[in-house]
Specification:
202 residues; alpha+beta; 2 domains; two-stranded antiparallel sheet; 5 helices; 6 strands; 53% helix; 21% strand
Length: 202
């Protein structure tokens, strides 16, 4: 089955990561420390060279993928995070910790979340008084006139709450499935290798 992906670096990293994960979870091994390729009539005696080549290829794919997406991830993450200000989970949590009621459709004025940012896994929310609210639907604003003098910042200090919100955000946005998931697969592959090494040493 062909692995279709518009980004070759992501495809390569995911394929090699999944291969490593399957190898270790299925308790794979090279019989008698040899690797035979019947199709080409090639036999490898030094299997440690094969292992080294696999891990060098893995690190190279990870490096190339990181170079390719690091700026895109920051950009997409920021854009997705700003869109998340309309989410029910962030609105409800903010209203609970601040005691401030946010504007709801179809009102044309009220408090609105103007900006969201993260700082060391903490979520910082900025709100201000908005007027001339135009609603795209029941949740999202199409446009708003914000009174800059009323903008205040609030920080959600609960790490557990922040973790829940960020986890929900990442899973529900494209920045997770398209950009972050390959990193997680790579981390899991390394974890499988470390676990196997510990088991051998033990």
């Amino acid at each position: 089955m062909e692995f279709q992906d518009s980004l070759p670096e992501r495809r390569n990293l995911m394929v090699i990561s999944i291969g490593i994960i399957i190898y270790f979870l299925a308790e794979g091994s090279l019989s008698n420390d040899t690797l035979k390729l019947q199709l080409l009539s090639i036999e490898f005696q030094k299997t440690n060279v094969i292992y080294s080549a696999v891990w060098i290829s893995f690190l190279w794919c990870l490096y190339r993928y990181h170079l390719k997406v690091k700026d895109q991830f920051r950009r997409d993450f920021y854009m997705d995070l700003q869109d998340f200000r309309y989410s029910k989970i962030i609105r409800n949590r903010f209203e609970k910790i601040s005691g401030i009621e946010l504007a709801k459709a179809p009102s044309n004025s009220g408090n609105v979340i103007s900006h969201i940012q993260t700082n060391k896994l903490k979520i910082c929310v900025q709100i201000g008084k908005g007027s001339d609210l135009s609603w795209k639907d029941e949740k999202k604003l199409r446009s708003v006139t914000l009174d800059g003098s009323t903008v205040k910042s609030f920080e959600i200090n609960s790490y557990f709450t922040n973790f829940k919100i960020l986890s929900y955000f990442l899973i529900s946005k494209n920045s997770f499935s398209e950009l972050l998931a390959p990193y997680l697969l790579a981390i899991f592959a390394v974890g499988c290798a470390i676990k196997n090494l510990i088991a051998i040493e033990g």
